[in-house]
Amino acid sequence: MSEPDRVSLAFIWDADSPRFSRRRFLQTMAFASAAAFVAACDRTDKGGSASPPDVRSPEAKVLNFYNWPAYIAPTTIPNFQKETGIEVTYDNYRSNDELVTKLSAGSTGYDIIVPTDATLVKLIHADLVEPLDHSLLTNIGNLDQRFRNAAYDPGNKYSIPWQWGTTGIGFDKTKVGGEVSDWDAFNLPAVKGKSSFLDEPRDAFAMALFALHLDPNTTDDDDLDQAKDYLIALKNKIKSITSDYRRPLGSGELLLCQAYSRDVLSAQATNPKLEYVIPKSGAFSWVDSMAIPKGAKHPGNAEKFMNYILEPKVGAALTNAVNFASPNRAAEPYMDKAILDNPLIYPPADVLSTLRFQRDIGEDEQKYQTRWTAIKSA
Predict the structure, then answer these.
(1) Cα dist. 246→70, 89, 345 in Å?
(2) What is the DSSP string of 67-87?
(3) Both 77 and 131 in a single domain?
(4) What is the mean pLDDT of residues 209-224?
(5) Residue 108's domain is classified under what CATH number?
C-alpha cells in the first residue's frame, strides 16, 4: 500500500473490505520483493484457526512504546526490561487525533500504541493496526470477561485493554444549585451558560440517546433525528461544545460538563469541590487498549509486553499508580482497596449494567457525522 493510499484510508469506514485477503497479499508481496523489510511486513492474520503458523525473523531486543502522558507505573518498564532484556523507548502523545495523524502519515517506528476504543475501531478500518498472535498471549485469560468480546474489538483480535473508565458528568458541587444524578442536570438554572458537552459526535449523541431512553449505538434515522434535535436545543443552554474542559471546570468557568471519568478524578486532586457522577439513565464505558501499528518492526516484543501487563501483580501496579480501573480481573487481589471500593472507578453491579461500549457501526457512522455537522452549524 502506498503512503497516499494509507493516508486516504485513515478516516474511511470500509466495513465491507476483505481485510484478511488484502493483508495476506500485501505481506506475501512485501516478503518477495524486499527482504530487508521482513520484520516489519511479515505478519499473518491470526483470525482463522486454519491460518499457518506466523514465521518471523528474529527481532532486535527493542520496543518502541507510544502512550498517553502520566499513564504508567514507575516500575512497569524497568521491570519488563530486567525480565526480558528488551530495551524500551517510551514516548507520549496528548490526543487520539495526534496519534491518528502520525499513523496516517506512514511508518512511525512505534511497536505499541494505546488508542481509546472508538479510535481503535477507526484504525482497524483504515488497516493501520496489526492482528495479534494469541499464541503469545498466554495471560489473556486474566482479563475480565467483559473485555474478551467487547463491541469495539470482538475476541481481542487487534487489542489488549490497558485501563478503562466511564463518560459521565463532572461538576462543582458547591455551585450547581441542585442534584446531579442524570443528564437532565444540564437543565439546572445555575449552570445555564456555564456548561459544556463533548466535541465528540458519538459521545454527544450517546448522552442524548441515553437521556431519551434510546439505544446509544442506534443507526435508526428517526432515533438519530430525535437526538439531533435534543442536542440542538441543549446547545442553546450551554457555554460551549468542547473536549477541552478540565481547566475551565477547575477554574469555575464551567460548573458542569459531560466528561471522562479519568479527567475529573485527576482534577479532584487539586480541586476537591469537583464531583463526578455516572448518569442513572446510562453512559458509555471507554477503554484504552494496547495495539500494534501496521508495519511495526518488533511485533513479537510488543506481544511479550502485552502478556507481561496481563500478569496479576504487574496489572495491579499499573492501576495503583494511575488510579483508573483495570480490565485485569486477576490483578484485583493485589490492588489498593481504596481504588476497588471507589464506585466511580469500579461501579457497582447495578450501575455497571447501564454502561455500554461504543459499537462499531461501520459506514453508518456517516449518519452521525452528517447530523453532527448540522448541530455544530445550528
Answers:
(1) 16, 29, 18
(2) E-TT-S-TTHHHHHHHHH--E
(3) yes
(4) 98
(5) 3.40.190.10
- The answer to whether the pTM exceeds 0.85 is no
Using DSSP's 3-state secondary structure scheme, residue 297 falls into coil
- Residues 65 and 183 placed together within one structural domain of the fold: no
- Do 205 and 102 belong together in one domain? no
Phi, psi at residue 28, to the nearest 5°? -65, -45
- Which residues on adjacent β-strands are paired with residue 277? 169
Q: Indicate whether 91 and 141 sit together in one domain.
A: yes
Instruction: Extract the C-alpha cell encoding 329.
Output: 480481573
Q: Is 179 exposed, middle or buried (0-12, 13-18, 19+ CB in 10 A)?
A: exposed
Residue 48: count of CB within 10 angstroms of its CB: 8
Helix (H, G, I), strand (E, B) or coil at 307: helix
Q: Which sign does the torsion angle of CA 261, 233, 209, 198 carry?
A: negative
- The residues, ordered by sequence, that sit 6+ positions from 273 with a Cβ below 8 Å of its Cβ are 172, 173, 174, 175
For residue 23, what pLDDT is reported? 31
Structural domain boundaries, residue 204: 166-285+356-377
pLDDT at res. 95: 87
Predicted local distance difference test score (pLDDT) of residue 55: 54
- Residue closest to 255 by CA, chosen among 185, 322, 156, 355: 185
Any domain includes 332: no
Give a yes or no: residue 327 inside a domain. Answer: no
Taking only the tens place, the pLDDT of each residue in 252-296 is: 999 999 999 989 988 888 899 999 999 999 999 999 999 999 999
CA atoms of 131 and 119, how far apart (whole Å): 16
In a domain, 337, yes or no: no
- One domain for residues 82 and 22: yes
Longest alpha-carbon distance in the chain = 68
Give the pLDDT confidence score for residue 32 in this predicted structure: 31
Same domain, 102 and 206: no
- Asked if 86 contacts 59 with a C-beta cutoff of 8 angstroms, the reply is no
* Grid cell digits, residue 69: 502522558
Specify the number of domains making up the chain. 2
